[in-house]
Each structure stands twice: as structure tokens, then as C-alpha cells.
């Protein structure tokens, strides 16, 4: 189980990194723990209440997915995660699923932080290079958490370059059980959805982690990318699933007419 110390690290560690050396000496970050006489009431509230709420909100979503997949088994395949900063959701996914479901876990990430921000995605919270976790560190965090190395794969690169037809052929014909889209940006979400189309099966859960960013504007962010994706592929059918203050999940109830064609194409290629 992910500890509150891990959650604190996500919130305060970036501040610690920017602090001058004398201030850093007042902090201890061993195993993600923060102890400091300088913690204000606001910082303690962020640590103990706000960050804990974010964690619990997301964890309820993951446990709901676990119950759905277990009840409707067999739903086999990949847990595919797009955006894996600090391995927080990857660890939560493992904790929530592996006792019930025999899935493989794939993290798709630049491991270099956010790309250059396009005009459509401009917002104060986003900047190029932000949310960076190096690939080796990500893997170390996951393995230390108990995820077997042979059940975990990383795909490094910005999505417009890394999500190639060759990679799709390599991963198919296995489908996705869960697709977790934590791309933050419209420009990043568009290629992710197109790549994932052929991995859909009946029962695939697709989750948008930043559904209510950009003030919930349907013409921006993940909401716009999702709307346009569904307009391009009207044969695909989805139903709303779990939603909370920031995330929204959907169930694929019909993967369209392309599933058999993809299977045949993959078979021919092999």
C-alpha cells in the first residue's frame, strides 16, 4: 500500500529541490519522509488532508475498476498507463489489481517531463520539462514497491514519436484491460487515443486523470481529445463509469468493427 510519506514526497519534494543548501539541511527526505520545524500549518494541511484526499479519491477509482474487472472476468490484457510521473498511479494500479487479475503493466512516458506547450494547452500550471521522473528511477520505484520486473515494461519517448506502428504490432494481439490517460495536455492525448484504438476490447476501462483541468472546458484538454476521437470513430461505443473531482472513466461496450481486422493483420505480419 502506498504510504502517506510517498504522497508527501510528490507534493513537497519539488519545493525541496529548489531550496538553497542551508534550507535543505533542515529537511530529511529518506524514504520520502519530510520532517522539518519549518512546516507551516498550510504545509501540514496539504500533507495530511489535501494530498491524502487526492490519494483516496484516486484509490477508490482503482478499486472500483478492480471490482468491475473481477466481476466481469475474464477481462485480460494490459494495464497501459500514459503519463507515469513518480510512479504513483502505477504503484496504485499494482496494489489494486494484482491479487485478482493477472495483467502486464506498461508505462508510456517521455521520462523527460512535459513537452513544449502548444497554444491550446497554455495554463499556468503546465510548463515544458515539468513532471519529470527519469526512466531508471521510475523502474526502481516500481520494483522496490514489489512489482515484478518481468511484469513491467516502459516505453520511453514523446507520444508523437514513440507510439509507432511497429510498437503496436509488437504488443498486439493482446488487448488493454485498462488504459489510464494522464497526459494533461490535448496535444499529448490525441496520439494516445489513436494508438489505443486497436487495443480496445469489450470491457476495456479508459480513465482520464485530468478530465476537469482547464476548468472543465469541453474544447480543451483531454475532454476535447476524447470528443474528437469519438467523432472520428462512431462505431466505438462507451458508457460512463466512475467519476470524481478530477478523474472520469468510461467502459468500452463495443470496440467497433476493426477488432477482427486487426487480429488478421497482426497474424499476417507474423
Automatic annotation (TrEMBL):
Organism: Roseospira navarrensis
Record-linked InterPro entries: SAM-dependent_MTases_sf, TylF_MeTrfase
Name of the protein this chain belongs to: Methyltransferase
PANTHER family according to UniProt: MACROCIN O-METHYLTRANSFERASE (PTHR40036:SF1)
Amino acid at each position: 500500500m502506498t504510504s502517506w510519506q510517498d504522497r508527501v514526497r510528490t507534493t513537497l519534494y519539488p519545493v525541496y529541490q529548489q531550496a538553497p543548501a542551508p534550507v535543505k539541511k533542515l529537511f530529511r527526505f529518506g524514504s520520502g519522509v519530510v520532517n522539518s520545524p519549518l512546516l507551516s500549518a498550510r504545509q501540514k494541511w496539504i500533507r495530511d488532508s489535501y494530498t491524502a484526499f487526492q490519494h483516496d479519491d484516486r484509490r477508490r477509482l482503482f478499486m472500483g475498476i478492480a471490482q468491475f474487472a473481477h466481476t466481469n472476468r475474464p477481462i485480460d490484457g494490459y494495464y497501459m498507463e500514459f503519463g507515469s510521473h513518480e510512479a504513483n498511479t502505477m504503484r496504485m494500479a499494482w496494489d489494486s489489481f494484482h491479487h485478482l487479475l493477472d495483467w502486464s503493466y506498461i508505462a508510456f512516458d517521455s521520462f523527460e517531463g512535459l513537452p513544449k506547450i502548444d497554444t491550446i494547452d497554455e495554463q499556468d500550471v503546465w510548463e515544458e520539462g515539468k513532471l519529470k521522473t527519469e526512466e531508471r528511477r521510475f523502474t526502481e520505484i516500481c520494483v522496490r514497491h514489489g512489482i515484478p520486473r518481468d511484469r513491467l515494461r516502459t516505453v520511453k519517448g514523446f507520444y508523437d514519436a514513440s507510439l509507432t506502428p511497429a510498437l503496436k504490432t509488437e504488443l498486439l494481439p493482446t488487448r488493454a484491460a485498462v488504459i489510464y490517460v494522464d497526459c494533461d495536455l490535448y496535444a499529448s492525448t490525441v496520439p494516445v487515443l489513436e494508438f489505443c484504438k486497436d487495443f480496445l476490447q469489450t470491457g476495456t476501462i479508459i480513465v482520464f486523470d485530468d478530465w476537469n483541468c482547464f476548468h472543465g472546458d469541453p474544447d480543451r484538454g483531454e475532454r476535447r481529445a476524447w470528443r474528437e476521437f469519438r467523432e472520428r470513430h462512431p462505431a466505438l461505443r462507451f458508457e460512463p463509469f466512475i467519476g470524481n473531482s478530477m478523474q472520469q472513466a468510461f467502459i468500452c461496450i463495443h470496440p467497433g468493427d476493426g477488432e477482427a481486422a486487426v487480429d488478421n493483420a497482426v497474424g499476417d505480419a507474423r
